[in-house]
Amino acid sequence: MAEHRSMQRAALLDAARTLLSEGGTEALTFPALAERTGLARSSVYEYFRSRAAVVEELCAVDFPVWAAEVSVAMAAADGPEAKVEAYVRKQLELVGDRRHRAVVAISASELDAGAREKIRAAHGQLVAMVVESLTELGNGRPRLAAMLLQGVVDAAVRRIEMGAEEPSDVAREAVRMALRGVRG
């Protein structure tokens, strides 16, 4: 029984990712989740009490995977400048990933305070990854610089999602801005 519930919960989360990546937060409804999974709408409520609860669970499941990919890319880089570049590039590479599109859609939505706090905490963990590299580059305010660097990444993500420029051009410019802007 526990395995069945776990599989149903995973199916609901997968459906939520798809709905968010295809149609944004407006598409994430319990009737749509029920339709995508073949469950009765009332059954969806057995797993999640609200849309915000679905969002919180997605963040709890997907964000650590995304952050781990960024961490692995940074660990493979040699030196602080290369680590900053890996931090930027890996996040931008993940833009096309359904998990990422779901997290971006979630970030843009109207959520309750608890869900917003979980998203902020997850982003804080991501930003913390690059602080040491910024310190090694001589930045006197590495935490602030890391927050601003994440702002560059977030802006680059939006540009890529708009489709106005080639993703490789956006990534190249974001890296150039990050490396010129983070030196002490």
Highlighted features:
184 residues, mainly alpha, 9 helices
Q: How many DSSP helices?
A: 9
Strand content of the residues, in percent? under 5%
In sequence order, what are the helices and strands, one letter per element? HHHHHHHHH
Number of DSSP strands? 0
Instruction: Give the helix level as a range of percent.
Output: over 70%
- Major sheet size, sense and barrel closure: none
Radius of gyration: 18 Å
> How far apart, in Å, are the first and last alpha carbons?
57 Å
Mean pLDDT value: 86
The helix/strand class is mainly alpha
Shape: elongated
Uncertain runs with pLDDT below 50, 5 residues or more?
none
Q: What is the subunit organization of this protein?
A: single chain
